[in-house]
């Protein structure tokens, strides 16, 4: 393992959270199941509060955990395992010595038997820890394409020590075959966008209790229709309200008041997509609703159903309508729909 860079220690720290966050009983119940199941997957698109919900749960439960915020530079098995080992060492300093020794002897060309050895060493060293271990992998979508990391994690999940609880926060659900087995055994805890979005009562509570803003029932309905409970959109609207004459000003033209949100999405999501997906999103941003017919005939595409399915699976600016291949564009250039 030649030329290793120093680890960035801030990636191993639980993110700080603001006090302006509502505790929700249904979500809290699912988060508490983290210590009851071997694997928890928290899956939703950008800005739905996955990291915040996890950090809040850790704080409220006063729970010790090994936190690792993943970045795109960690998309190989050796840097990934180096950070994962360091995360566990924040609570258990003696963990990982055999694993690290073995990794230092490896080169960049990983063989299948080496992945098995890395998995065995990790599991065996985990068994030497006499207490419960909660490992949180945040922003897993940054390395979801890594073959070696996915193979290693599947090997781990096949032989998970009973006291190890793995939490994965991601925008895209992993395609691991072992998930079906875990689900059948009731060993998989899943938190989805549905669990993270705000309902009307929660939006009203957030505005009244934390921002001292009172709104009418009609305004609440409009605000909910604009955001569809999307946490980041609600937060940005709440920050914007004190600078407006009235809420009606925002409701009339919500897109003008959410420029920061658009910039966030461009930086955090759009700019990180492959050129083909960027081009497709740009070409279709004029539409509020999409279908395979629109893409194939108006845009002159072939096989657009695969692209629409990929965007839906990745939670990229599109929401599926029913079970069809049609979808609503959530980030269209001419739309006031921000959900």
From TrEMBL:
Key words, A-Z: Repeat
All residue ranges annotated as the MalT-like winged helix domain in the record: 268-324
Domain Nephrocystin 3-like N-terminal per the UniProt entry, residue ranges: 20-171
Pfam families named among the record's database cross-references: NPHP3_N, WHD_MalT
UniProt entry tagged with the keyword Repeat: yes
InterPro entries: NPHP3-like_N, P-loop_NTPase, WHD_MalT
Signal peptide: none
Name of the protein in its database record: Transcriptional regulator
């Amino acid at each position: 393992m030649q030329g290793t860079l120093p680890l960035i220690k801030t990636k191993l720290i639980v993110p700080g959270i603001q006090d302006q966050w509502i505790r929700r009983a249904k979500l809290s119940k699912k988060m508490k199941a983290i210590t009851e199941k071997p694997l928890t997957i928290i899956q939703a698109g950008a800005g739905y509060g996955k990291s915040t919900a996890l950090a809040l749960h850790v704080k409220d439960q006063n729970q010790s955990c090994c936190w690792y915020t993943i970045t795109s530079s960690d998309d190989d098995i050796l840097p990934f395992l180096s950070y994962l080992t360091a995360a566990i060492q924040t609570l258990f300093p003696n963990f990982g010595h055999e694993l690290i020794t073995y990794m230092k002897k490896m080169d960049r060309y990983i063989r299948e038997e080496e992945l098995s050895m890395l998995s065995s060493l990790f599991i065996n060293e985990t068994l030497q820890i006499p207490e419960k271990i909660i490992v949180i992998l945040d922003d897993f979508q940054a390395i979801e394409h890594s073959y070696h990391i996915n193979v290693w994690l599947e090997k781990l999940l096949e032989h998970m020590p009973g006291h190890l609880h793995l939490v994965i926060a991601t925008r895209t659900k992993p395609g691991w075959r072992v998930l079906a087995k875990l689900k059948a055994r009731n060993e998989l805890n899943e938190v989805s966008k549905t669990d993270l979005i705000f309902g009307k009562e929660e939006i009203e509570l957030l505005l009244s209790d934390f921002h001292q803003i009172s709104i009418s029932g009609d305004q609440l309905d409009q605000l909910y229709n604009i955001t569809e409970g999307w946490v980041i959109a609600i937060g940005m609207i709440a920050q914007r309200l004190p600078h407006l004459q009235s809420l009606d000003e925002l409701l009339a033209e919500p897109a003008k008041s959410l420029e920061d949100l658009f910039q966030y999405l461009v930086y955090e999501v759009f700019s990180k997509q492959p050129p083909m997906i960027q081009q497709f999103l740009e070409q279709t941003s004029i539409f509020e609703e999409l279908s395979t017919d629109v893409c194939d005939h108006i845009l002159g595409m072939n096989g657009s159903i695969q692209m629409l399915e990929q965007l839906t699976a990745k939670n990229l600016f599109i929401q599926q309508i029913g079970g069809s291949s049609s979808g609503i564009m959530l980030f269209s250039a001419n739309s006031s729909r921000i959900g």
